[in-house]
Amino acid sequence: MQILHSVNDFNEAKQVIVGGVNSPVRAFKSVGGIPRFIDRGEGSYLYDVDGNQYLDFVQSWGPLILGHCNQMIIEASINALQNGSSFGAPTELETALAKEIILLYNGVDKMRFVSSGTEATMSAIRLARAYSGRDDIIKFEGCYHGHSDSLLVSAGSGCATFGSPSSPGVPQDFSKHTYVARFNDLDSVRSCFELGNIGCVIIEPIAGNMGLVPAENEFLVGLRALCDEFGAVLIFDEVMSGFRASLNGAQGYYDVVPDLVTFGKVIGGGMPLAGFGGKDEIMKLLSPVGDVYQAGTLSGNPVAVSAGLSAICQIKADVGLYARLQDLASRLMDGFAQEAQKRGIALQTCVRGSMFGFFFNSKEVKNFDDARGSDTQFFASFHQKMLERGIYLACSAFETGFVCSTMTQEEIDRAIVACGESIEEIINE
Ligand SMILES: *Cc1c(COP(=O)(O)O)cnc(C)c1O
């Protein structure tokens, strides 16, 4: 595979952009190799600047459930753009999108739109702290909620203590308010509740940022009960799983209603758009109705909202969509599992709607410690060999993969063949 243009582009980018990328995972640091510079996308495919074609299982890290260059999203965006790119004043579009989301997500009475998932979770936590009147929060090891200070925190030395900053520049004074519990482990949550003065719990109910690790049902039910017992606000971060795991996100799998939900990725149809919503009683504390400050120059941007609205309307209109996507994702994971098994390689796989994940691991993965026990070296080689075969997978062992509506069984089968060949090649090296 010829990648000279990407190599040159990467070198040039590094002269003027830190690390050559505007989001660190794009640099391929954990898998080695050169990040491909993308020229364009079309349906299920990416084309790099050297003209190589890749079957894209990253889909912009989740947003593009209808694939690249969806015609109706393009038209909706162009139409909006022709009326003006931004007003800093309300539009009817925002109301329409809010209505669609509220209809589909229990516990969401009111919405507020922002431009990134990071903003959505940061604002939801501020609101939850204001509502509960308490500063301490609980997050889970391996869950990612964007890069705001309170959330860039990893577990401290003991399990049930407050965390320590996971990045330089995050003050200890912030991280001491963030308790880090273990995913799928209610006892660790209870310990945090007993130690801190917990105002809110934030969780990815279907965790997609340590690989794909869904919460167990009893765990989420127990989490809801603990929040009720201690009077804490429960936030479901559905920035990834919303409109991805199912039309109703995690609510399609669990009978648990959170107090606040955060959205992003799919709701923007590929444009920068995110949001958070929840019970009226909590949302009404938000400015201008209440005193909790939150704002944004480009929040609810008409072009982004038009793209998102088009995506959501198309998704809703296609009744069999999620079943079809889940079939494709299951076919892919079953295929990978078979190819691995044939060659004596341990592989754990998981599917939730259009989301899929796999770990080179002999143990079932239920939390971040389990995930970390996976063979990341093997994954790095696998990633490289799949890429050489035109299969574009997320460039980290701890990410979720995505299928999109333009994908076919034939494309999935090609990826399975590539998987077999790649594993074979690694074994023979
Ligand atoms: C992607 C993601 C975020 C952050 O969203 P950005 O738009 O990248 O800021 C937050 N939470 C979850 C669960 C995500 O997957």
From TrEMBL:
Obligatory cofactor(s): pyridoxal 5'-phosphate
Keyword Cytoplasm: yes
The protein's annotated pathway: Porphyrin-containing compound metabolism; protoporphyrin-IX biosynthesis; 5-aminolevulinate from L-glutamyl-tRNA(Glu): step 2/2
Gene Ontology terms for molecular function: glutamate-1-semialdehyde 2,1-aminomutase activity; pyridoxal phosphate binding; transaminase activity
Keywords: Cytoplasm, Isomerase, Porphyrin biosynthesis, Pyridoxal phosphate
Stored SUPFAM superfamilies: PLP-dependent transferases
Catalytic reactions on record: (S)-4-amino-5-oxopentanoate = 5-aminolevulinate
EC category name: isomerase
InterPro entries attached to this UniProt entry: 4pyrrol_synth_GluAld_NH2Trfase, Aminotrans_3, Aminotrans_3_PPA_site, PyrdxlP-dep_Trfase, PyrdxlP-dep_Trfase_major, PyrdxlP-dep_Trfase_small
CC terms in the record's Gene Ontology section: cytoplasm
Family: Belongs to the class-III pyridoxal-phosphate-dependent aminotransferase family. HemL subfamily.
Subunit details: Homodimer.
Name listed for the protein in its UniProt record: Glutamate-1-semialdehyde 2,1-aminomutase
Organism: Helicobacter enhydrae
